[in-house]
């Protein structure tokens, strides 16, 4: 494993200090062990103001897959790179060594080339969690295409938006997908999306479930047929450090998801550095990140981080509760997983079942536990620690975002403090600050404010695809000179960070981000709906649930049947526009919304009602029609 590695608390403090005082030297050392076709001219360039553009390792040339694969062939050719555990435990699992993965990536890259994909083209992937998804992602990186993975749970309309925004020319998909007891005919979802995607010329279909699909002649090809006659080697395409590597869409305050762009060299160094240090990875670790590759966690800690480090990564097609709530633990024992990285929502959903499901397994291989995606509540933290970690595995509560490329604030396993409900100390290279509303820095401990990051780090978002101004406005304009995270945080009396949650109009449902405006736009697609307002509220399992207040054309339905029909139409509209994952948990049909005289919805009131804090609604005198509030309180779900 490569060089820069913090192993003690003293080293952490020294490394942190060096990363702040001499970042060029620190990040040059972190980049040294990689294979570079040409070394960089400058380590860091640009800054956060006024343009919001950073560069890292500018002037360098490299290929990420050379570093994920070829670089390991001398010493790790026969080591397992990927272990694949399918949805159904009765289906046989499979494994790929580094040599086999290298060969498959080369072949897939050759298939892409054969099908007209060129360097810089965008390739959209809508694929179940199968090894070929990881292979396809790496194949794009190998031949220089920009991958845009869309979680295979989004609707046709959401896929179409993402494909059109990136003007993708090629789509990779599969015949079908099993997720728990659910079956999704992914190819037909893609077909529906492509009816409105003129840029797409080729669809490559992976055979997975064997279900029948429609193949459009001239557009659609089967991967297993295309791969028959391609070479097993493919020279890695030399990429410039700041060439885009991938686009990943995520939700913000506005209705339209944005394409977060990460580039080659900085992302590589950040993925590798954060993975090895946070999890304190050793040569024989089997790392299981339960996130789907459709999310950033799956990109950085399911694929790139582990492979850059030469570790073994486990890909799981299924869900925590299928066929039983013991599935996670069964998989850990079966494959001797040493590092387990999951989301609080998964832990909470398993806590709801008998602890016997956990106690039935030894879990003795586990060494480190991780949490990501949302704040982990103390109860879940202790359950995880006691029943899964048996009190002997450090827990790393890792705070980061799609935009940060990798982990920013977290314990380093077994080294820096791990305290329930605290993400902890910043990683070397990360300078968090708490800001007041006016943008001034809040000094000292035991303080709360807006979380922002001072100074660039290698994994920072470079731009939003096709619209740099949006990135500038969202992240670098609110507080000039800082990257603004959108989160609120507290620095406790020991300087450890506790993430409080979003301070913008973003809801975090089971660790997945949705903009309230995005869900409102979807709801408003229903023929019944005039206007809607969506807020988050505390949810026992999901962290936050989606609460929708909706005004309908015919007023508030008076019969149960009308009510059901209206609610069904609203749910259907959301499922069609975004996907089942954004389905409102509660819908309240109302005759009006609390608006100020200038027409602005007072969301504060809606949030309080959704949270059940109806006694503490605050001042409502500035409302146009205060009586609306009484109706909303009375009809609360
Ligand atoms: O609010 C924070 C929350 O998830 C947001 C980022 O979401 P996304 O870009 O989808 O990335 C999720 C996986 C990295 C953050 O703004 N969040 C993420 N991790 C944590 C967290 N909140 C509290 N604690 C965490 N460990």
Helix and strand topology:
Blueprint: H1 9-21, H2 23-31, E1 42-47, E2 53-58, E3 61-62, H3 64-68, H4 73-76, E4 80-85, E5 94-97, H5 98-114, E6 122-126, H6 131-143, E7 146-149, H7 156-166, E8 170-174, E9 177-179, E10 182-184, H8 186-194, E11 202-206, E12 220-222, H9 223-226, E13 239-240, E14 244-250, E15 258-263, H10 264-278, E16 286-289, H11 296-308, E17 312-316, H12 327-335, E18 339-342, H13 344-351, H14 356-359, E19 368-372, H15 378-388, E20 395-398, E21 432-435, E22 447-454, E23 463-464, H16 468-476, E24 482-491, E25 497-502, E26 506-509, E27 512-515, H17 516-523, E28 529-539, E29 543-552, H18 560-577, E30 586-590, H19 603-611, H20 627-634
Bound molecules: adenosine-5'-monophosphate-propyl ester (PRX).
Domain AMP-dependent synthetase/ligase: 70-455
GO molecular function: acetate-CoA ligase activity; AMP binding; ATP binding
Keywords: Acetylation, ATP-binding, Ligase, Membrane, Nucleotide-binding, Transmembrane, Transmembrane helix
